[in-house]
Amino acid sequence: MAKKAIVNIYLKNGVLDPQGKATHHALEAMDFQGVNDVRMGKQIVLDVEDGVDEEQVKQMCETLLANTVIEDYAIKFEQ
Amino acid sequence: MKVTILRFPGTNCEFDTEYAFQKLGCDTQIVWHKEHDLQSPDLVVVPGGFSYGDYLRSGSIARFSPIMKEVGEFADRGGKVLGICNGFQILTESHLLPGALKRNENLHFISKHHRLKVENSDNTFLQKCEKGEVLNIPVAHADGNYYIDEQGLKELRENDQILLTYCDENGNTLNPNGSVEAIAGICNKNRNVFGLMPHPERAMEEVLGSADGIKMLEGFLA
Fold this sequence. Notes:
The complex is a heterodimer of chains A (79) and B (222).
Chain A lengths: L1 E10 L6 H12 L11 E9 L4 H12 L5 E8 L1
Antiparallel strand pairs in A: 1-2, 1-3
Chain B lengths: L1 E6 L6 H10 L3 E6 L10 E4 L19 H11 L3 E5 L1 H8 L6 E3 L7 E9 L15 E8 L3 E3 L2 H9 L3 E6 L15 E5 L5 E4 L16 H5 L5
Parallel strand pairs in B: 1-2, 1-3, 3-4, 4-11
Antiparallel strand pairs in B: 5-8, 6-7, 6-9, 9-10, 10-11
């Protein structure tokens, strides 16, 4: 059996996100109302064996997938 | 002097770098990233380009190339390492230099000559320059927005690790990419690992717009 490990990566709070900001401005320019903030991130979907646990994916994030100097990450699993 | 210039898939400044150091009378060699031998250099240069297509993050995959283990050990032994542009990104991803390089604040790829102010010349790299001197050097990057947290910035300041900042012709701060404190180049605490986004190797001939790169790179020869 395989499952999916889904890693969401965003710039840390307090680290300016120029892409999110530009997108936010564009939404405002189009008169979309009520958007307080836009954060741009990336999602990495890993197709993994059942035995792969959160700790292992965390290691992958810390080593390669995220740069923890500027980014936070969140991991979730889906069947 | 022997200069080893690294080449990753996607590197594109290795020949400019080779030309620059040969012009200064150095022996140069280009070493493929899968090699395990730096070939006893006096200086290792991680040149500019788009290693691994900038996939994931600029420099993030190149960091795990076999040769980077050798670069880390070389730097730990006090060996001199210079990272230019993508090379700077690779060195921050490798934690050989503090901080990180983000997408430019205006989201543009910036390619032009820019003035740089020498913030500190008490180091190998910029010893031929004067503190406060304004240099004219090309920049060409999309991810040159230097970030470091408050604590890290304090340490950079205390140890005089901020080497170059972006400025105008008169030396007043002019920040093209959103970098913290308009930082363009730094060194590590031990002052043997250097990184900058601008390209001194592209400023070696007056006829091409500037020769200010000569006095920067010459520092390594002294």
